[in-house]
Amino acid sequence: MMIEKIIFGAGCFWSVEATFRSLKGVTDATCGYAGGDTENPSYEMVCSGTTGHIEVVQVAFDPAEITLETLLDHFWHCHNPTAKDRQGADIGTQYRSVIFCFSLQQEDAARRSMNALQQSERLQAPVVTKILPAAQFYKAEEYHQRYFEKHGIGHH
């Protein structure tokens, strides 16, 4: 079994993690921070908006069980990719929409997927999602991992 990884930023990482963890073929989903320039940031530091980091989820998956295209489809549907620096009530640069890719193949697939979404007319505004090479990933504090599961909260 060959496991691949990709990193998604789509607002508060709790619901993003739960969304991806529920998919068959996803072997792990880890809440964390990426995209900034502060080493080993804490949740409080990221929330301050001064680190440049984004709340993200690193998704590990088995491409023999789930395709990257399926993961991208879930990404586009689990948040509003037209909202700049916010998702719902969560406002700030740490909530921006981003895909961090570990290969040129992932980057190409993400761009094709984003272009198809933009041309589908499903959205009323332009997609603001950034597609970038994988950044240093910092695992979030343990109390953020499997947050909904630990607190008996369902996700949508």
Number of strands: 8
Mean pLDDT: 95
Query: Strand count, sense and closure of the main sheet?
Result: 6 strands, mixed
- Basic shape: globular
Question: If you had to describe this structure to a student in words, what would you say it looks like?
Answer:
There is one protein chain. The chain has helices at residues 13-21, 43-47, 68-77, 104-119, 147-150, and strands at residues 4-9, 26-34, 54-61, 86-87, 90-91, 98-101, 130-133, 138-139. With 156 residues, the chain is of the alpha+beta class. The chain has a single domain, classed as Peptide Methionine Sulfoxide Reductase, Chain A (2-Layer Sandwich). The longest helix has 16 residues, at 104-119.
Which key phrases capture this entry?
single chain; 156 residues; alpha+beta; Peptide Methionine Sulfoxide Reductase, Chain A; two-stranded antiparallel ribbon; 5 helices; 28% helix; 24% strand
List the helices and strands and how they pair.
Elements: E1 4-9, H1 13-21, E2 26-34, H2 43-47, E3 54-61, H3 68-77, E4 86-87, E5 90-91, E6 98-101, H4 104-119, E7 130-133, E8 138-139, H5 147-150
Helix pairs in contact: 3-4
Could you give a short description of this structure?
By secondary structure, the chain is α+β, with helices and mostly antiparallel strands.
